[in-house]
UniProtKB/TrEMBL annotation:
<feature type="region of interest" description="Disordered">
    <location>
        <begin position="488"/>
        <end position="515"/>
    </location>
</feature>
<dbReference type="GO" id="GO:0016491">
    <property type="term" value="F:oxidoreductase activity"/>
</dbReference>
<comment type="pathway">
    <text>Carotenoid biosynthesis.</text>
</comment>
<dbReference type="GO" id="GO:0016117">
    <property type="term" value="P:carotenoid biosynthetic process"/>
</dbReference>
<dbReference type="InterPro" id="IPR036188">
    <property type="entry name" value="FAD/NAD-bd_sf"/>
</dbReference>
<keyword id="KW-0560">Oxidoreductase</keyword>
<feature type="compositionally biased region" description="Low complexity">
    <location>
        <begin position="496"/>
        <end position="505"/>
    </location>
</feature>
<dbReference type="Pfam" id="PF01593">
    <property type="entry name" value="Amino_oxidase"/>
</dbReference>
<protein>
    <submittedName>
        <fullName>Phytoene desaturase</fullName>
        <ecNumber>1.-.-.-</ecNumber>
    </submittedName>
</protein>
<comment type="similarity">
    <text>Belongs to the carotenoid/retinoid oxidoreductase family.</text>
</comment>
<feature type="domain" description="Amine oxidase">
    <location>
        <begin position="11"/>
        <end position="298"/>
    </location>
</feature>
<feature type="compositionally biased region" description="Basic residues">
    <location>
        <begin position="506"/>
        <end position="515"/>
    </location>
</feature>
<dbReference type="InterPro" id="IPR002937">
    <property type="entry name" value="Amino_oxidase"/>
</dbReference>
<keyword id="KW-0125">Carotenoid biosynthesis</keyword>
<dbReference type="InterPro" id="IPR014105">
    <property type="entry name" value="Carotenoid/retinoid_OxRdtase"/>
</dbReference>
Amino acid sequence: MSRVVVVGAGLGGLAAAARLAALGHRVTVCESAPTVGGKLGVVEREGFVFDTGPSLLTIPRLLTDLFDDTGGPADLPVTPVDPACVYRFPDGTEMVLPHDAARIPAAIDAALGAGTGESWRRLHERSRRLWELVSEPVLRQPISLARLARMSVRPADLAAVAPWRTIDGLGRGAFTDPRLRMWLNRYATYSGSDPRRTPSVLAVTAFVEQEFGAWYVPGGLRRIVDALDRRCRDLGVEILTDTTVLGLETAGDRVSGVRCADRWIEADAVVSDADATALYGRLIDGAPARMTRALRRTPCSMAGFVMLLGLSGRTPGAAHRIYFPEDYDAEFDAIFGPDPRPVVDPTVYVHAPDDPALRPDDDSEGWFVLVNAPAHDPGRGVDWDADGVADRYAERVLDVLAERGAHVRPRLRFAEIITPADLERRTGAPGGAIYGTASHGPRAALRRPANRSPIPGLFLVGGSAHPGGGIPLVLMSAEIVAGLIGPAGTTQASNGGRRAAAAPGRRLRARSKRS
C-alpha cells in the first residue's frame, strides 16, 4: 500500500481521494478550512440555506461513475431543472430555454422570431462533432501534444476545432440576432474568460448544457460534497480539517511529503487540489521556473461578487435567471482592461431554487445573486476590502435588478455579501479568481497546468488544472489523476506516476441524457 496525501478537500480533492482509496492507497486529505467542500460551500442564516458554488449539475453520469467506481451508488438523487434558464435581454425580451434540447428551437423561435431556433440547431449539431472530438481524447485524458497535433492534420477536425476563432467570432458567424450572440458569449464566463479572446472550442460548454440537460440535487448541490465526504471516510480516507499545508518536501528529485504547522506527513505521491498558482508560487521551494513563468504570464480569470438574499414572499418563475446589460462588451472591458474596476452595468445571474429544504417557511425564498467581477488586487486593481467598496457595489447590484424588473428591496430580510477578497480567503484562489487562469488565446488549453507535474510524484486536480473548472471537468480531473497514479502495488503507483496509466475514460455519448 502506498501513501498519498491530498492537499485540499474541494470537490476535486475528495473525488481523487475516494478513487485512490478504492484503488488500495492509504490516503490522507489536508484541508486548511474547518469544513470540506472548497468552492462547493454553503451558508446558513436565519433558516435560509445557500449553495455558494455551482448551482446546477451537467453530465450527472460523471457523478454516478464516481460513486459506482468507489463502492456503489450514493443516496444522491438528481432532478431535471425545467425550464433550465430564463434570459432577459436589454430590450425586455425573455427567452425561456427548456431542459430538453429537442424543445429548444421552438422556444427560441417563440422568444426571438421564426428562424432563430434553426440557427441554434445548426450550431448545436456542429458542436456535437466538436464534443465527439474533445470529450474522450482531450477532456478525459492527460494533456497530450501528440493527440492535439493529430487533430490539426485532419482538415475536417481542424475546421471543427477552429483554434483561430473566438466564441464571439463563432456567434457572429452563426447568428444574425445579437441576442443569441449575447447568449452564446455568456459561456465564456463559465471559464472566467472574455468571449472575444476565448477559443471557440470552449463553446462546447453550451452544447453540453443543452444536450445533457441541467440538473439539481434536492437540498442543494452541497449534498454532493457531503455524500463524497461520507464515501471517503467509508473507504478509510483520513480527512484532517483545520490543517494548513505550509509546503511540499522533496527527496532527491521527487516529492516526499507535506509539511503542516503541527506535523510532517510522508507521502509516496501528493495530489494538489490547491490553486496551481498557489502551489507553484508558494508551496514548492524551487518550483520549475517554466511553470512559474507561464502562470505569471497567463491572466487570472474573473472573480465573482456574490449576494445571498433572504426574501419575504415568493416569486414564481425559473430557478435560474440571467439579466443581460445594454453593453456586454463593456463588462469584459471593465474586468480585463488595463484599469480593472467593478462593472457599472453588469450581467446579473440569479439562482432562486424552489426547494423547501432551503427556506425557513413557505412565505420566503433565498436568492443567490452573482455578477462577474475583477479579482481582488489592492496593488494594481480593485481593493474589495477597502472601506465602503463592497456595500456600495451591493446597492448598485440591487439597483440593476430593480431596473430590469426584479425589485427585491421591499422584500429584503437580509443581504450577505461575498466579495472576491472573501473568495480568496475562503477558497485559497488568488484574488478570488475561482476559475484559475483565463482561457484566452488559441493555445489556452495547453497553458492550463497539467495533471502530472514536472516534479515526480506530484499531481494536480481541480478547476485550476486540466481540463478546467465546473463540476464535470473537476470530476474528470480526479479520474485522470487516479489513472496516472494507478492501483496500489503497481509499477506506476510505486513510482508516484512516473509511468502514466490511461484514465478510465468511459465514453459520454452526445445523445445521452441518462442521470
